[in-house]
Amino acid sequence: MQGIQIRKWTLQDRDALVALFAAADRRFLSDRLPDPYTEKDADFWLRRVCEQDGAAGIFRAVTVGDVVAGSVSIEQKEDVYRKDADIGYFLVGAQWSKGIMTEAVRQACDAAFQQLDIVRITGAVYAPNLASRRVLEKNGFTLEGTLRSGVFKDGRLQDLCLYGKLKGPDAG
Ligand SMILES: CC(C)(COP(=O)(O)OP(=O)(O)OC[C@H]1O[C@@H](n2cnc3c(N)ncnc32)[C@H](O)[C@@H]1OP(=O)(O)O)[C@@H](O)C(=O)NCCC(=O)NCCS
């Protein structure tokens, strides 16, 4: 598919971000995300990521033909975990299964390994989220372990799969 890009968020993306969350499938997302997601929530987050992009993380809009269709973030951890970073992403349902997030994650990992002082990226995925697991596997992430019943979401316990990708040409 042509025209899949990741670009930095700007303060002008408030409406696009609110629309994205309104259309988001939350089954596999954290309960910490405000619901409903308001303009105030968007302004707060955009201010933070515009300040921190490239220093504490890579925070990007995923665009298809210049239209914002999703989000991908790679956020550096702190303390003794600071050489590691957590990846998270989502895409509007209308664009699923076209290879878009696989390409966006590829671009985001490249940018993160270039710009952040990290040696690995971690992806934590609820076990039933097969599409997300495929996105990581297609990007060279390795399943490193499973936290059994590590997630309680929508009244249901789920396993949490921990994936990792190391920096470097030979790294999985
Ligand atoms: C997960 C998500 C980002 C995937 O984005 P996407 O652009 O559709 O992903 P891609 O098209 O690049 O790749 C999806 C892969 O999963 C596969 N897939 C999709 N649904 C599947 C299912 N129900 N079972 C098994 N595989 C599935 C696709 O076939 C494809 O693999 P393939 O290329 O080997 O055929 C998107 O579904 C989403 O936003 N989900 C809701 C939010 C979310 O779960 N975020 C991740 C939290 S960890």
From TrEMBL:
<protein>
    <submittedName>
        <fullName>GNAT family N-acetyltransferase</fullName>
    </submittedName>
</protein>
<dbReference type="InterPro" id="IPR000182">
    <property type="entry name" value="GNAT_dom"/>
</dbReference>
<dbReference type="Pfam" id="PF13302">
    <property type="entry name" value="Acetyltransf_3"/>
</dbReference>
<feature type="domain" description="N-acetyltransferase">
    <location>
        <begin position="4"/>
        <end position="169"/>
    </location>
</feature>
<dbReference type="GO" id="GO:0016747">
    <property type="term" value="F:acyltransferase activity, transferring groups other than amino-acyl groups"/>
</dbReference>
<dbReference type="InterPro" id="IPR016181">
    <property type="entry name" value="Acyl_CoA_acyltransferase"/>
</dbReference>
